[in-house]
Specification:
With 199 residues, this protein is α/β, with parallel strands linked by helices. The chain has helices spanning 12-20, 34-43, 48-66, 92-102, 138-148, 176-179, 184-193, and strands at residues 5-8, 26-27, 71-81, 84-86, 106-117, 120-133, 169-173. A hairpin with a 2-residue loop joins β5 and β6. α2 packs antiparallel against α3 and α4 (92-102) packs across α5 (138-148). The longest helix has 19 residues, at 48-66. One of its GO terms (molecular function) is nucleoside triphosphate diphosphatase activity.
Length: 199
């Protein structure tokens, strides 16, 4: 019996990564109160890694309740810098403030993926990538934001490395696919092992 794959995410880049890998899947965006989960976990002193994992699981579980036999892929990213978490920018001014904070420094990006079936998690992966941003001039920063807004409003940290955001970095230590939103190789490996995709 061939099981279907559903991506529980509205992210176009995540969908594109799976499409390019030749995976047949559908998309179902879950309705999850991310800020409520994040705030509650921060209040309890949870780590950015665990918050990313919990958010990914909440999304996958939500869709899995509606489509129990399918393999549901839930994902989330959390950016940690200097003991705090940076979320998606709410305005272009917010994006400028985030990028000025990160300029010339190293931060961590946690990318979580959880696969659910029958309403429960059956596989998970959290990738930890260290991102070092080059010192950025105010003039370039302003022109970068004006050219790339509102696209970067969907990205924590206000950058997209798959686009012009790659120019902001001097070094990236870790999985490039994870930076783009999906630990793709590990997901493909698991789906192949389970016989969900051909290998």
């Amino acid at each position: 019996m061939q099981h279907s794959i559903i991506l529980a995410s509205g992210s176009s880049i995540r969908a594109e990564l799976l499409q390019r890998a030749g995976v047949s899947f559908s998309v179902m965006k879950p309705r999850v109160d991310e800020e409520m989960i994040k705030s509650a976990m921060l209040a309890e002193g949870e780590s950015p890694r665990n918050i990313a994992d919990a958010l990914a699981q909440a999304k996958a579980e939500k869709v899995s309740m509606k489509e129990p036999s399918a393999f549901i892929i839930g994902c989330d990213q959390v950016l940690a810098f200097d003991g705090r978490i940076l979320s998606k920018p709410e305005s272009s001014d917010d994006a400028g403030a985030q990028l000025r904070t990160l300029s010339g420094k190293t931060h961590e990006l946690f990318t979580a993926a959880v696969i659910c079936q029958d309403g429960r998690a059956i596989w998970r992966k959290v990738s930890d990538v260290r991102m070092t941003m080059r010192p950025i001039s105010d003039s370039y920063l302003d022109s970068y934001i004006s050219r790339n807004w509102p696209e970067i409003s969907h990205a924590c940290g206000s950058y997209q490395v798959e686009a012009e955001g790659s120019r902001l970095f001097s070094k990236i230590d870790g999985d490039h696919f994870a930076v783009m939103g999906l630990p793709l190789l590990e997901i493909l490996d698991y789906l192949a092992l389970r016989g969900v995709i051909d290998s």
